[in-house]
Amino acid sequence: MAAGFEGKLEGRYFVPESSFSHPASLEMRDGSLVVTIPETGQTHMPEFAELGDRLGNVPRKILFEDGSVFECPDNDAVDRAFHRELSFFSRMSRWEASWKFIVFACLATVAVVFGLYRYGLPVAANLAAWATPSGVVATIDRSTLDTVDRLVFKPSNLDEDEQERYRSVFAKLRSAAGLGDGDTRLLFRDGGKLGANAVALPGGTVILTDQLAQLAKHDDEIAGVLAHEIGHVTGRHSLRQVYRALGIGFMVAVILGDTSQLLDNIVSQLALLDTLSYSRKFENEADGTSVMIMNETGRNPLAFMDLIDRVFEEAGVENEQSGWLSTHPGNRERREEVIRRIDELPQ
Ligand SMILES: [Zn+2]
Q1: Percentage of residues of the chain with pLDDT beyond 90
Q2: Separation of 135 CA from ligand 1 center, angstroms?
Q3: pLDDT value for 71
Q4: Residues 46 and 164 in one domain
Q5: d(Cα 29, Cα 39) in Å, to the nearest integer?
Q6: Are 226 and 173 in contact (CB under 8 A)?
Q7: Are both 61 and 181 inside the same structural domain?
Q8: Domain containing residue 58
C-alpha cells in the first residue's frame, strides 16, 4: 500500500499510546517509510497500516501498525505522496476556469438569492437543483459513487445473465420515462451494511443491491423499484434533498462563491446515503412515476409493494433503513396510495 509513496511530508508524529507528538517528516527510504524527528534526531520505521480518509481541511492521519500516527496538514501533498486520485477540491479549481461554470455560478447565485428572498429554502433548493448543469451533476454523481463504493458497497455477485436481464428491463423503463441513454444508468453492488436496497444518485446512477435482487420473486418487483428510482432521477430528488439539507450554509457558500467547499459538502452529504432518505413527498412522487411507467411498459405496477413487504419481514424492523425504505409512509398506507394511483390510470 505504501509501496508507491513518493516525496516527503512534513507534519507531526504521535508516539504510540501517548498524547506526545513531535514535529516530524515522513519519507520513503529503501522501500520503508521513515519518520524523522529533527528535535531529537531520532528516526522510526513503523509498519504502514492505513491512510485516513480526507475530511475537508482536517489534517490527514497516516496510521501505523504499532499505533503511532503521522499527521499532515497538507492534504494535497498526502494525496500526491500516496498517488490518490485528484481530490474534489483540486478538480474544482479546474471548473472555476471554465466559462460555463462561471456563467452557471452567476445564474445560480441570482436564482438562489432571488429564491431565498421570494420563496425561502425549499424553492431555492429546487431552483438550484434545476440550475446545476449536467457536467457538475455528473461529477457529483461520480464522486459520490467513488465514496460509497469505498465506504458501503462491495462488488456485485449477481450473475451476468441476471444483470443483463435487469439492464434490458431498465432500458425500457427509462425510455418510457422519456429519458435517454446518458440520463440514467443501472449498476449492481453488494449492499454491504445497506443490505436489500436501491438508491439513485444525483446524476442518474441507479444502484440495485444483490440482497434486494435475491429477495425478488418476479421481475416486475425489481422493475417497480427501478421505476421508482427513475422517478427520483426525473424529479432530481437527491440534489433537491441535499440542497435543502445543506440549507443556509449552502446559500452563503454560493453567494460568497466558495464553490469548492460547497461541492465537498454535497458529496459528503450524499455519501452518508441518509440524504437519500427522501421526504415523504418525494417518495410519493417517485411511486407515482413508477406506477405510470410500469403501466406503460405493460408490467404490474403493484408488484414492487410485495417486495417491499418482504424486505421488512426479512429485516424485522421498520423505519430503520436508509434509502427508499426509510420514510415510507407505512407499508399499508403506501400500498393503498399506489392502488389509488393505479385506479386513476387512463383505461
Ligand atoms: Zn424512494
Answers
A1: 42
A2: 24
A3: 94
A4: no
A5: 20
A6: yes
A7: no
A8: 2-81
